[in-house]
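seq as requested:
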Amino acid sequence: MAITLTESAAKHINHHLSKNDAQAMRLSVRLTGCSGMAYKWDYVSAGNEGDQVFEEHGITVYVDPKALPFIDGTEIDFVREGLSSSFKFHNPNEAASCGCGESFTI
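struct tokens:
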């Protein structure tokens, strides 16, 4: 089981960690949107009990154990497209996503 970050995502996360006085990123999913699930992330000082821990490019990512089966193998990237920039989640478990990119289904 693994969650990975691109170098671009790691740089962006590191910038926000320092702005938010945090030490790591915590990733989970929530039920929402037209496709069923959405990624949820927070900048945190520590993970929760039972969280899985992944490290990539000097960034620690805590993952909610209930979310891991839905996002195992996901690569998190940070991309700039024109005037927009955002995190992109490349999840091999995704069967479909909504048109606006807010939610996904397995």
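The mean pLDDT is 87.
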